[in-house]
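Workshop exercise sheet. Pairs work together: one partner reads the sequence aloud, the other fills in the structure field after running the prediction. Swap roles for the next sheet.
Pair: D.N. / O.F.
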Amino acid sequence: MAGNDHSSYLLKFNVGNTGNYTVIRLTTAPINSHYDGETYVAGGNFLSFDSISETIDLSTSEIKVSLSGVKLEVLKMFSDNAGQIVNRELYIYRGITNKNWELTNPPILIFQGQITSANASMDYTSGQGSSVISLGVTNKLAFFGRSKLSRTNVTEHQVLYAGDKGFEYVISLSQRKDLKWSP
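Structure field:
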């Protein structure tokens, strides 16, 4: 990095129902950042997350993402959609910015995972009140071995391709002796 360059992080995830969701984009830069036609809202030092480490093992890891000092409407949105945040994907990018905090190159994806827990709280002990949103996020390997629970049958096929009749003939084809399945 050059003398006037800075490093900032970009965080992206969805909140709400499938098909009717809001994409949350935040950055640690003191001003909004723009990447890939999207605006990441400045969170300054209020956005933090556990350190991300790489290992040679194929193992899962979980990090905690914290948002503090968030606006009341953001806190309300989290509270109203708490059950619709879990199991959503979260992306963390790291970018280099110039002295004006503008991204100089496309940021690099450093973490992609699935939100496993979400908690929003207010703390009134300081007399002013502060809000904190905490997310537990597991990396992509956490669900690598999990079965998708998809079946290869007529019923399952109709869910994906309503009206297609291709699977209705599979059983009769598999019982034919004159049909060769390989060269």
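Discussion prompt: The first strand starts at residue 6 and ends at 17. What would you look at next?
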